[in-house]
Amino acid sequence: MxxxxxxxxxxxxxxxIGCKKNDDxxxxxxxxxxxxxxxxxxxxxxEIAVMSFDARTLTTSYADRDTTTGGGFCWLVVSEKYLQSGxxxxxxxxxxxxxxxxxxxxxxxxxxxxxxxxVPLTEVIGKVxxxxxxxxxxxxxxxxxxxxxRDSKPSESYRIKYxxxxxxxxxxxxxxxxxxxxxxxxxxxxxxxSYLVTExxxxxxxxxxxxxxxxxxxxxxxxxxKMSESGKEERxxxxxxxx
Length: 243
What we know:
nine-stranded antiparallel β-sheet; 2 helices; elongated; mainly beta; ten-stranded antiparallel β-sheet; single chain
């Protein structure tokens, strides 16, 4: 799978790390923001990033290849300090300086622009990036055991049991038709608003991976989700809650 982390998200990550914050914090930045658009491009689910502002710390999360482990397409999480001055976020780290302007912010929408950079970011400078506030709609509804009803990509039947602690069990049928837990070194999930990130290591290798779904609805114990990726057909996933 190709690297989907765009320059917009990479520049945002650089812009907001390695700095201290002053006392000018009038903008309502606290909380989680999902970056969904840059300029005219709306990101597919596999290209979203999440910014979490909490007091003096920003946590940026996104999917990319982890070069430290050999290139697995996984979910990366980085927490650092940042500096805010009015509606600008300014940062310098390792001789890299980025200036970011908050163009507008409401309770559920954030627009920002990368205005200056000491490294080439031609595709990013001056373009409006859009982030939506992550609203907790599904966390309590997700807990429990779900069985696959329909997958637009051919797939064998399976079950997923989501636990409140952010872990999940992946269940498959054995030759006797019994449901058993598939052994995976990593089985974690994260829910950012309507975006569900599942992290795992396949039994065939030790390379970490992640899937990023957008939950469309959870109603009457039926969950419908979609996964979109540039250049590929959108995948639809329907599961029924059984426990």
